């Protein structure tokens, strides 16, 4: 059975740097609050009209494909992870396929938010191991700056998120002990509403106080998105930050240890842990819990904020560009977020 190795990595960060002090113009917050609670100093925002989640994904993909020494025409399958797609449907996978003039290959969209890239990586790994595909493009991309509440009302969320994209090209190898050693995926839907964007959606909770048995179909059609929802700011994400934090600091170490145990390894064997960049305090907590040295953990949330599905591939790419990952190194990826969903992957580079 072949295994899956990372043949190329790429990233794209929009040019516009937005500092914490820039946000003070719109939001009652301070640079010290943001830095103390999250570690974030600045983030990037995409160009309002000329950049989308797909265009950023394409830029990251082009770099990953080039570094893999392959071409867009050679890609067998696309997996695109995002929570901020260009359209409600179709997904960004087909938009990327069109933009890159790829063959009529399959394109899968993944909606697992912060752990989207881990889920995408795991799916790709199974396709390659089974022999179904040999050359898979996995992209994580987000344009958060278009869908957040940039008023004081939304400050616990809006100060955290940033835009950007990361990508990897995965290929098959017969070299024993190389590539993705294992992936581990989990979910707990009991907490789905603790970090969520409820609208637009088909749940109709907004209308729960109304007896809509008497509504005609045209009125029901309007339940999907109404003026009232917009007026009441119900089209923005909601997060119970403390509950998410408490769960994250338990599940991150747990799923990393699951991967290590599965492969007969220990935290000391990790050359580089790349955790999803949700909050620097969470990464530091995980580092402490697993007794990892500073050199074993890569963080860049200080400069990009939380880029959700893009954060792990951006960090992976940046660490690789800095020469921090070499052949034979053990790299651990881990993520936790909305759903809740979480996951990990161990890669022998
Ligand atoms: O990637 C997806 C997964 N997400 C996460 O992993 C996020 C996990 N959670 C967190 O990172 C933290 O909970 C936050 C950074 C989001 C918030 O930090 P916190 O220490 O949990 O703050 P809090 O929500 O408990 O709010 C504390 C205070 C509140 O004021 P009062 O009620 O104590 O007067 C908030 O209103 O801080 C206030 N606050 C702010 N103040 C200044 C909330 N946001 C801000 C802000 N600036 N941006």
Q: Helices and strands in order, then pairings?
A:
Layout lengths: L2 E10 L3 E4 H4 L7 H8 L3 E4 L7 H15 L9 E5 L10 H8 L6 E5 L5 H14 L5 E8 L12 H4 L5 E10 L5 E9 L7 E2 L20 H5 L5 H5 L6 E2 L1 H22 L9 E4 L4 H10 L11 H4 L6 H11 L8 E8 L3 E8 L1
Parallel strand pairs: 4-5, 4-6, 11-12
Antiparallel strand pairs: 1-7, 2-3, 6-7, 8-13, 9-10, 12-13
This protein binds oxa(dethia)-CoA.
Description:
This protein is α/β, with parallel strands linked by helices and 349 residues long. The chain folds into three domains: 3-173, Peroxisomal Thiolase, Chain A, domain 1; 179-193 and 238-348, 3-Layer(aba) Sandwich (Peroxisomal Thiolase, Chain A, domain 1); 199-231, no CATH class. It is 32% helix and 23% strand. The chain is built from twelve helices and 13 strands. The chain has helices at residues 20-23, 31-38, 53-67, 92-99, 116-129, 155-158, 217-221, 227-231, 241-262, 280-289, 301-304, 311-321, and strands at residues 3-12, 16-19, 42-45, 77-81, 106-110, 135-142, 164-173, 179-187, 195-196, 238-239, 272-275, 330-337, 341-348. The strands form four sheets. It has a five-stranded mixed sheet, sandwiched between helices. Strands 8-13-12-11 form a four-stranded mixed sheet, sandwiched between helices. Strands 2-3 form a two-stranded antiparallel sheet. Helix 3 packs across helix 4 (92-99) and helix 9 runs parallel beside helix 10 (280-289). The model has no long low-confidence stretch (mean pLDDT 95). The structure holds oxa(dethia)-CoA (UT7). Oxa(dethia)-CoA (UT7) binds next to helix 2, helix 6 and helix 9. Oxa(dethia)-CoA (UT7) binds at residues 29, 33-34, 37-38, 114, 155-156, 159, 195, 241-242, 244-245, 248, 278-279, 282, 306, 337.
